[in-house]
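In the design runs reported in the main text, the only information available to the sequence generator was the tokenized backbone. The following block is the verbatim input for one such run; it is reproduced so that readers can re-run the procedure and compare outputs position by position.
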């Protein structure tokens, strides 16, 4: 969200709201497909039912090749936070990324049942931590910073949305795991609805904090900057730990898929 705030200022909140609205039909579609056709092949399985095996094979390979490109990038996001906390330059960033990939892979070696338990724990820590960050930063919020709403013009909302869209995708990844739900017709729609609510609160709240709390809208390690406004010391280490949880959880889900 810090990149979007940098692009569009307070108008980044408009981009977040628009993308959350667009996420509803996207999430609902994959929830309905996952509940109705709980296939291990996920999106590729749906394509096979609709268009045959050749199209399904192409879809499967797209996903398969996308994960090795995306997961290292996630690791480098965490590396930015770790480097901001302990220093070490690009060596720290790369070492963090490699460690996170290895950790996520290890969680999946024994199967999805173990990685699913890891995912529940990571997600709980993530949600609780971000709520704590938002509560800590709330007293420092200056709502006068919401004006002017579009300091770079309303056209800047489009590039902000292009940055944010990557935060609000991934509904397709979990469809690969719906075949392992005990009661997919009941549980997949419930899980999807709960996820939409959590994502809306956390991303909306974090973007609002980045706009209204003085000085945090940096391109890298924005949560570190947020915490620095409230904590005299230790904020960078807390943010680094949070970044590791975020990226391990996401990498875990994609590798499982």
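Verbatim output:
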């Amino acid at each position: 969200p810090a990149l979007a705030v940098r692009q569009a200022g307070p108008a980044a909140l408009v981009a977040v709201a628009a993308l959350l609205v667009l996420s509803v039909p996207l999430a609902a579609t994959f929830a309905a497909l996952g509940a109705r056709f709980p296939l291990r092949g996920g999106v590729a399985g749906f394509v096979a039912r609709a268009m045959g095996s050749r199209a399904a094979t192409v879809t499967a390979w797209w996903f398969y090749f996308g994960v090795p490109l995306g997961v290292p990038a996630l690791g480098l996001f965490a590396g930015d936070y770790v480097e901001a906390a302990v220093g070490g330059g690009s060596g720290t960033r790369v070492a963090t990324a490699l460690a996170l990939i290895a950790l996520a892979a290890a969680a999946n070696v024994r199967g999805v049942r173990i990685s699913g338990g890891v995912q529940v724990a990571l997600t709980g820590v993530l949600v609780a931590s971000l709520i704590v960050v938002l509560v800590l930063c709330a007293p420092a919020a200056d709502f006068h910073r919401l004006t002017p709403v579009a300091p770079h013009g309303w056209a800047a909302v489009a590039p902000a949305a292009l940055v944010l869209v990557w935060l609000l995708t991934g509904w397709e990844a979990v469809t690969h795991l719906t075949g392992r739900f005990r009661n997919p017709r009941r549980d997949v729609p419930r899980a999807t609805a709960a996820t939409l609510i959590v994502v809306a609160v956390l991303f909306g709240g974090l973007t609002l904090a980045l706009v209204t709390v003085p000085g945090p809208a940096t391109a890298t390690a924005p949560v570190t900057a947020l915490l620095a406004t409230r904590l005299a010391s230790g904020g960078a280490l807390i943010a680094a730990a949070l970044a590791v949880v975020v990226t391990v959880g996401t990498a875990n889900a994609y590798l499982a898929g």
